[in-house]
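Q: Here's a chain of 455 amino acids. Please give me its 3D structure as tokens.
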Amino acid sequence: MPTTIDAGLPALAQAAQAWTLSRCPPEIVAQARLCILDTAGCIVAGGRTEEAALILRCEGDAAGAAATVLGTPARQPLLSTVRIHGYLGDVLELNDLIGGHASIGVVSAALSLAEVRGAPLGTMVEAVLRGIEVTHRIYSAVYPSLKRFTESGLVPVGIPSSIGAAAAASRLLDLDAERTAHAMAIAGALAGWCPAEVIFGDGGTLKPMLFGAQTGATGVTAALYAQQGMTGPLRLLESRLGYFATAATAARLQAELPPERWGLAAPRRKLHACCGYLHSAVDAAVRLRAQAPLTPHTTLEVHVPPYTADAVDKPRPPVSANDARFHLQYCLALVLCGADRIDPEHSLDHAGHLARDDVAAAMDRIHVVPDGDLTHYHQCRLLLKDAQGAVLAAQALDAPRGSPAEPLADDDVIDKFRRIAGPSLPPGRADRFIGQLMAGEDHAPAAGCIATLAT
């Protein structure tokens, strides 16, 4: 089935020019603010990890400090700060899933560029809104007909997120529609491969660089290039050699969407600190555990879509904290042994949990089944079977907590920010940031709000 193109990058850039705070539905604007809040919390929380020291050292030699690194006393040059924020905000796998993983790259780019540019808070929110919606439209064009990871080797979020970050940066640089389109095209061309092996296989500590750090910095770089007159490949998406042909079999892009179909109208946010591919099975396991426990005489059969199994069905225990966040058997074993939610400590202390006899035994009794009847990663079917293969209990789920069908309430997102960012901030700072961001004082400098999260 061929690609259908109702709009390319120029049309998408033109549409984005109309997405202003005054023209967008209030509920869409409110969700953009919550994306900033949620992502900022993930960044601050990520500063407690060993990887935080690593990325700060990697970026520490650049001169000309200009922007605040959230949750720290440090200041770094613009692009270094974007990369650090993107890395820290993704390292715990708590950042949202809107448009694939739009917020982590877009918000990281907008926070630092808004501070350096002296932009008002409202302009930063508007930039985030545009960036997320651009990312959502491109990602949604390929998602229904994605090729399996074993066919393309590509995780499809990196290129849309880089283009979306460029759209956000273009707003903060006041670029017109033509230069915005070229910024988006340049970003798509400069975007990294986002290889599936690094994301789902043995990626070491590099993975967070690909979803947020690289996409955000690439978007800012592309917008700065376009500001100076550099041009890009405007048919990068729809050409026969383009992104759509690479990632999907029947892509369809639409620039103009009714508000109810906007990405921010149906946000996907994370309750669990692990890959979104695991969330449905984790929540189903919580329910199944209430029906019947896993025993030495039973096994758990986990049916998931084939492309999901390609990514998170692992033949051996997790070998790193990042690997643990993408390990279906490990996370389900934690739930079957009593956890109701996957928290950051489950990956940060994966060695300690693997040393538990109950977790090790549970992992051995979990079997993943690629099921062609399931097509979305929100879908799963769990069967608890006895030694003869008889089904003792079953649980199917197609809407995990945090998905559009079972969304986190606004207060849940705010409470999550307090829970994950609060421990890293001086008393009262978390609530002060919430108040500044959500109050709608859009003419106030964004830098003042950002400074609240410096320590």
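Q: Can you summarize the key feature?
A: The two ends are 54 Å apart (CA to CA).
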